[in-house]
Amino acid sequence: MNSPTGPDPIDVAVGTRIRVQRRHMQISQDELAQVLGLTFQQIQKYERGANRVSASMLVRIAAKLQTTVGSLVGEDVVAEQDAAVLTALSTPGAIDLLRAYSQATPKGRKAILTVAKTLVEPDETASAG
Known about the structure:
By secondary structure, the protein is mainly alpha-helical.
């Protein structure tokens, strides 16, 4: 149930796990919705945590995404690490980047890490002015 401050954090976490697994499986929201007899807007609401996923729907989603209900509700992982990883993986492009990284050669992985670290480190030349 949504509170005055927004969706329940548990519903948001479940929705994020659904989104991460769906994207990992390279299934669109529309494809998942069609298999489940829903609209893609309903899938969006589940993934944002705006709508709570019923137990029966959670079982159906888990089956389609080739995972377990336990995984989608966070029982298969350590909670703190899970939240941080799910947040990072829900960033647009994160799964694509991870997929490219895992397919790269060791030299390519090193280059990807160097570029990524350079992009997130503060620009030292900007403060030197």
